[in-house]
Amino acid sequence: MNDVLNKATVLVLNRNWQAIDVKTPAQAFCMMANGNATALDMFGAGDMRPVRWQDWIGLPVREEDYAVRTVRGLVRVPTVLVLARYNKVPKRRPKLSARGIWERDGGHCQYTGKKLAPHEGNIDHIVPRSRGGRTSWENCVLADKRINSLKGNRLPEEVGLQLKKKPQTPRELPVSSFIRNAHNIGDWEHFLVAMK
Length: 196
Description:
By secondary structure, the chain is an alpha+beta fold.
């Protein structure tokens, strides 16, 4: 039961029904009980209705639902919450990571322009760390492993390489673009369709 309550399986929508976060069922139940959110009762082909906590705890548990046992009996675990008062879509920058650099560079080697398969690329420090280069958005690019190996701890111009474009810090994006349906929850697809 603790496993069900502590996995981030509840999509949170702002009051305009835009995806903005993911919470655990334990957090979702608290938000509902405090009146900060309603759960969506999802049924049929995209049919849904917001349900307040008092009514939610009395809903029947369907075969496809996760549920938790309480002193009042089984309570269905919601898959989607709608916040009562919050209407913003926060923004944030991607994290500086290999995945973030890969996404920023569109999967292309920044020296050759070649589209890379995941096993063909790695991250290159333009100014090598051994020469004082920092790990930053402006100093890291996606590179073909063979090109990066050839470059070694030298500057690109020292081995006849030139960047296709100057690397930059990515712009802020709506937080919804960072939400991933890691648990393949079907109910989320209504709200994450634009992000595929």
